[in-house]
Amino acid sequence: MNGFKYIIIAFIIFIGFISTLVAISFKQKIPLVSRDYYEKELNYQCEIEAMKKAKSLESKVEIFFREKRMFLSFHDDLEFSQGQIEFYCPLGPEYDFKESFNTPCYQLNLDMLKPCNYRVKIIWYDCKGNMYQLIKNYYKN
């Protein structure tokens, strides 16, 4: 009877542990990457082509981060029209940030970003409407 009592106690502790884990997992907020993820997934082939085009021009585009600022510069021989910078953080949409730009030399103050590891997507268009895309990582502490 003594051994049976320990098995019952261990079983009760195990059920309590599993119940606690289930309760915690239901309370966690897990946001989607974006609200329109299905449309973005359908257009992903365009993004792949834009990344390939941008790879060929990577030496003509300068992107660097210094002292809470992001500097973006396109060389003069590129036919730049407009672009957009997207900062994505997996912690939630309240960390994300988007900004449009229309000058070939652009700098962005990063003070408004919360501490996180960001995936920075830079999308730009040339005068003919061709899309280009680069992805960089940025960690703000």
Helical region count?
Answer: 3
For this structure, what is the CATH homologous superfamily of the largest domain? Immunoglobulins
Q: What is the approximate shape? A: elongated
Secondary-structure content class: alpha+beta
CATH topology of the largest domain: the name is Immunoglobulin-like
Number of strands: 7
Low-confidence stretches: none
Describe the sheet with the most strands: 4 strands, antiparallel
CA-CA gap between termini: 58 Å
How big is the Rg? 24 Å
Shape-level CATH architecture of the largest domain: Sandwich
Instruction: Indicate the proportion of strand residues.
Output: 35-45%
The secondary-structure element order is HHHEEEEEEE
* Helix percentage: 25-40%
Any idea how many domains? 2
The level-1 CATH class of the largest domain: Mainly Beta
Strand order of the largest sheet: 4-3-6-7
- Which whole number gives the mean pLDDT? 84
